[in-house]
Amino acid sequence: MSPFVTITWCRSLVGLGLSLNVQENPTYGSAQGTRNMVDTKPWLFAKKKGSKVLEVARNFSVNVVWDLTNATYTSGPEPNQGFFFALAYDDEIVLLLGDMTEDAYEKAHAKSISSDTVMISRREHIFGQKQYSTKAQFIENGPMHDVLIECNTRGKDPKLCVRVDKHLLLQVKRLAWKFRGNETISVDGYPVQFFWDLHNWLFSPNDGHAVFMFHTNMSTDKSFSSFTSSSPSSEWHCGTRSPLSMKDVDISGFSLLLYAWKNDI
Hints:
- This protein is mainly beta.
- The chain folds into 2 domains: about 5-115, no CATH class; about 120-260, no CATH class.
- The protein is about 5% helix and about 50% strand.
- It has 2 helices and 20 strands.
- The protein has helices spanning about 100-110, 200-205; strands spanning about 5-10, 15-25, 35-40, 50-55, 60-65, 70-75, 80, 85-90, 90-100, 110-115, 115-130, 130-135, 145-150, 160-165, 165-170, 180-185, 190-195, 210-215, 235-240, 255-260.
- The strands form 4 sheets. Strands 3-2-1-19-11-20-18-17-16 form a 9-stranded mixed beta sheet.
- Residues about 25-35, about 220-230 and about 240-250 have low confidence and may be disordered.
- InterPro entries: DUF868_pln (IPR008586).
- Keywords: Signal.
């Protein structure tokens, strides 16, 4: 079994929290589509520290352990350090988030960590006026990069700039005609396809957000509209790395989807 796991960090009535979704891995063209095997609500993990056994399928359960007691945060609901969240199966950690690795091993009673888990997508909401920043790791085991998107939609000549580690990689002018598009940039020596949709900002400035997406190994039959969910989350594929085709997700690459909102003063 090689499920897809989605972790969503969120704000709820009880404070900051997360939800967990586990889906089966259908082959391309499956008539049944994707079936939810586990879909928890944020309040299931309302406690800052704990463990739960979740039944994913018949005769198949995973042990979920977490500790957010000393977690530190920046501007969003996702912690950046001082925490762990892990899924364990058969004495092996199949998914581990956070920097408290040893504590996660001890809590899960696990002996090793799976090498067959790979992040396939990440969705974030970012806020700013003209500059929108985040951090991203475009290839597995690659370096973490500072990503800066500069977009000024006001004036006679609005333009869009993309910088990675302060290096200008893309500049798009005449946005009134090019409010949607895509270009290929190079990061870590690999091609990364960058998509943008600025329609709301240019034609409905008081309503909506812009959407940006970075994608590695983009196949020719993918389209920007394939990625429509706006939930801030990260998704992993757990299990075999043999090539598998899916309608909306290419597990051979990585997608970073950014929803940009204006903080006008």
